[in-house]
Amino acid sequence: MDKFDLKQVTKLEWTAIGAGILAFIASFLPWFSFDAGIISSSVTAWGVGIGGWGPVLLLIACAAVVLAPHFGKQVPNAPLIWLAASGAALLIILLRWITLPSSGVGTGLGTGLDAGAGFGLFLGLIIAAVSVAGAIVNFLATRKTV
C-alpha cells in the first residue's frame, strides 16, 4: 500500500471527499419534519427510506472512488463513476423531496398540520449539486487530457 499524501489530493477531488463527509453529517439532520399542534417530530435520511440514505451512500462511495488511487488502488473510469453516482444522488434527493408529504396533503387532518422537507434534505441537495459540479469539471478535464 502506498503512503497517503494529503498534498497529492487535488481541489476537485476534495469536492468529492468533502461531499461524502458532509452528506454523512447531513444525513443525521431532519430530512422530513411535521408539526400537528402538540405533536411534532422529524426524521433523518436514515428514516425516510432509500430516497434518503441511498444518495448519502452514493456520495460516500464517490469519495471512496476518488480516494482509492491515493491508496494505491486504481479505479477504471473513476471520473465517470463519480459523475454518474453523484448525478444519481442528486436525482434521488430531488425525487425524495417531490414525493414527501406536505402540509395537509393526503393527511386528512386539515389545516393544523405543518409538514415538509427538513433542513437536512436541503443541505443534502446542495451537497449533491456541488459534487455533481465538481464531477462535471473533473470529467471534462480528464477527457481533454486523454
UniProtKB/TrEMBL annotation:
Keywords: Membrane, Transmembrane, Transmembrane helix. The chain crosses the membrane at residues 12-32, 44-68, 80-99, 119-141. It comes from the Bacteria. This is SPW repeat-containing protein.
